[in-house]
Write a structure and sequence with these properties.
The structure holds 2 protein chains of 2 kinds.
Chain A: H1 12-19, H2 21-25, H3 27-65, E1 69-74, E2 76-77, E3 81-82, H4 89-94, E4 99-108, E5 112-113, E6 127-131, H5 135-139, E7 143-146, E8 158-161, H6 163-168, E9 179-182, E10 186-193, E11 205-209, H7 210-216, E12 225-230, H8 235-246, E13 254-257, H9 259-302, H10 304-312, H11 317-354, H12 362-389, H13 392-397
Parallel strand pairs in A: 6-11, 8-10
Antiparallel strand pairs in A: 1-12, 1-13, 2-3, 4-6, 4-12, 5-9, 7-10, 8-11, 9-10
Helix pairs in contact in A: 1-11, 3-9, 3-11, 3-12, 9-11, 9-12, 11-12
Chain B: H1 2-5, E1 14-25, E2 31-42, E3 46-50, H2 57-64, E4 72-77, E5 80-81, H3 87-97, E6 98-101, H4 113-118, H5 128-141, H6 157-169, E7 175-179, H7 187-202, E8 207-211, H8 214-218, E9 222-227, E10 230-234
Parallel strand pairs in B: 3-8, 3-9, 6-7, 7-8
Antiparallel strand pairs in B: 1-2, 1-4, 4-5, 9-10
Helix pairs in contact in B: 5-6, 6-7
The chains are: A alpha+beta, B alpha/beta.
């Protein structure tokens, strides 16, 4: 029989209102159950944000330093070679088409000390290297104080110190009169360098000119490594022919490396950690979801009287289900939004400390909130169905 | 008015009628809560249903309130035979035609008296402003116009039950069913609620009050005695 009853109705705004009843009447419990989701989402957003921020910093660094630097080094070790490149290697390499500049480094068999009173054994791990005057521009390095070797000073007993070497020799500022005891000679310190980002070995070196090395240190100036800047478009081609060009007789004794690869490898390692932490975040999220499900099941049991009352007031089963599902979604949404905010804040603070730009991938924000809602929906579904199935008389009787 | 009450058979004025209603709970052994109840309430009546515990009072209230279906027999509320109604239709019927007052008040603890009463219209589809306006009027009607913004938990027992009565009235239902409305109240507050029910009934609202308190039931214009699932006596309108 058709009846003229107007069906029960619950407006959208009222769905939200009924869904928030549990949050309103049991604030602490709601806060704690949202916290579980919040921690999970914060972990995921934070990890993705930090990874993105550090990646962008690395890209900026690579951009600044260029990925077109190659180092050609004489192999050392048993059966590999003498640790020396042929004297004409630099000249040969510079004749390869796409090579833009080359800069030669030659390890000098000498030690450097603060004064001539320091015992010979206490070298401080500082090496002495003869270098070309274009070293700094080839490596995209900089001078922190004083100046670098030039055509004039590289003929005289002058030295430029790497950042670590300067620190170990106790020289912070260059006055122009400081001297170091280098290979039984006094060398005047004319400059201290910034840290090299691509070639940290040189941070622990005292650098002298080739002419000075030959004149005062009796050095043969055989190159130990050659830095090569090549056209970025032909990097692979240049890499392929470098060994044979540098040492045609024994190309296997030559090691060719691309220092920017090390930075990229570091990033790949960071990616592995990112995946690990994302996994941990997912576990936290799952635990948070179980927490919400648990709280909702308890809530349905405790609020049988309310369910009975709502049925008496005209709520349908669907209205009751929607109320409890809505509550679970609300809890998880609060957790999700809180988690995104917390993850953002953590990323911001850490990025600030490291001097990075704070970058949160939009996918992490959207994905974080979506994941929270999904977990909430799954967690709320069973309690909601239970609440809806409760018969009104049973619900009222148990009250 | 009084003449109408005296004529339960006057077809269109019957708000609620039960015909041969039985209710059996399939436990072992089965419980026969109602064993064939015939009972009708006409518009504007105030009926007290009294009986000892286990007499089937609560079951009768649930069936009259369409919260449950009878095992056999016919139940008609506001002209709707509930055998023809789906679960959803019964919800609709409750939202528009039946008001409930419970022994435990069943108010939402963190919410104000006004919000609690407005919830009486929550499932009718009316908007918040209308619900609140009608709720204010209903609270004034039960003498709580000065307590609109008070949180339910801050009210006394008697005041809470008044709020519950206001919630039952707010939708102008065809019938209000009260289940032991004084059961949780002291004598003074209990008298107050009984007085309130009488007063509202005088304004034309149909009431069925279920109680185990013979004194309260017998003070009402009509008393129905229930025992072992059967109507033991029906005073008719005195």
């Amino acid at each position: 029989m058709a009846n003229n009853l107007e069906p029960s109705k619950l407006h959208g705004a009222d769905v939200l209102r009924t869904a928030s009843v549990g949050l309103h009447t049991r604030k602490l419990r709601a806060a704690l159950s949202a916290l579980g989701i919040m921690i999970g989402i914060a972990a995921m957003v934070g990890v993705l944000g930090l990874s993105e921020s550090s990646k962008s910093d690395l890209l900026a660094q690579l951009d600044r330093l260029g990925t077109n630097l190659l180092t050609v080094q004489a192999g050392t070790g048993i059966g590999i070679g003498s640790g020396e490149l042929p004297e004409e290697a630099a000249g040969m390499i510079s004749r390869i088409g796409p090579v833009e500049t080359t800069s030669t480094i030659s390890a000098v068999d000498a030690n450097v000390f603060k004064t001539d009173f320091v015992p010979a054994g206490q070298t401080g791990g500082i090496t002495v290297q003869a270098v070309d005057v274009n070293l700094l521009e080839t490596l995209a390095g900089g001078v922190s104080d004083g100046k670098f070797l030039d055509a004039a000073t590289s003929d005289y007993p002058t030295a430029v110190l790497g950042s670590v070497a300067a620190e170990r020799l106790g020289i912070r500022e260059v006055s122009g009169t400081q001297q170091v005891w280098l290979g039984d000679q006094w060398f005047t310190v004319i400059g201290v360098l910034n840290q090299f980002e691509l070639n940290p070995d040189l941070d622990r070196a005292a650098l002298v000119g080739f002419a000075a090395a030959a004149e005062y240190l009796d050095h043969d100036n055989v190159p130990t490594s050659i830095l090569v800047r090549a056209n970025p478009d032909y990097i692979d081609e240049v890499t392929a022919v470098l060994s044979a060009t540098a040492n045609p007789q024994n190309p296997e004794e030559v090691e060719v490396a691309r220092p920017s690869d090390a930075l990229e490898a570091k990033e790949a390692a960071d990616d592995a950690f990112t995946a690990l932490f994302l996994g941990l975040g997912a576990v936290a999220l799952l635990v948070g979801g179980v927490g919400i499900a648990n709280v909702m099941v308890i809530s349905v049991l405790e609020r049988r009287a309310e369910i009975g009352l709502r049925r008496a007031l005209g709520a349908t089963k669907r209205h009751v289900a929607v109320q409890f599902l809505g509550e679970a979604l609300l809890l998880s949404a609060i957790g999700g939004i809180g988690g995104v905010a917390l993850g953002w804040a953590v990323t911001g603070v850490y990025a600030n400390i490291r001097g990075w730009d704070t970058l949160i991938p939009p996918l992490a924000i959207g994905g974080g909130i979506a994941a929270a809602l999904l977990i909430g929906a799954i967690a709320g579904l069973y309690p909601a169905i239970r609440a809806a199935r409760l018969s009104p008389t049973e619900a009222l009787r148990s009250a | 008015m009084t003449h109408d009450r005296a004529a339960p058979s006057a077809g269109s004025d019957v708000v609620l009628s039960l015909h041969g209603v039985t209710k059996e709970y399939p436990t072992t052994p089965p419980v026969h809560a109602l064993r064939g109840v015939d009972f009708a309430v006409t518009r504007g009546e105030l009926v007290g249903v009294v009986g000892p515990s286990g007499s089937g009072k609560s079951t009768l209230l649930h069936i009259m309130g369409t919260l449950d279906r009878p095992t056999a027999g016919e139940v008609t509320v506001a002209g709707h035979d509930i055998a023809d109604l789906s679960d959803k239709d019964m919800s609709a019927l409750r939202s528009r035609h039946i008001g409930f007052v419970f022994q435990q008040f069943h108010l939402l603890s963190g919410y104000t008296a006004l919000d609690n009463v407005a919830d009486g219209l929550l499932y009718t589809g009316s908007n918040v402003a209308t619900r609140r306006r009608l709720a204010r009027r209903a609270l004034e009607r039960v003498g709580l116009g000065h307590r609109l913004g008070h949180v339910a938990t801050k009210l006394s027992g008697g005041e809470r039950q008044r709020v519950a009565v206001a919630r039952a009235l707010v939708g102008t239902p065809s019938i209000v069913l009260a289940d032991e409305p004084t059961g949780n109240l002291d004598t003074k507050n209990s008298d107050g609620i009984v007085e309130l029910i009488r007063q509202i009934n005088d304004e034309g609202v149909t009431f069925v009050v279920i109680t185990h308190n013979r004194e309260i039931a017998e003070a009402f214009p009509r008393t129905v005695g229930l025992r072992d699932g059967l109507i033991e006596y029906d005073s008719g309108v005195r």
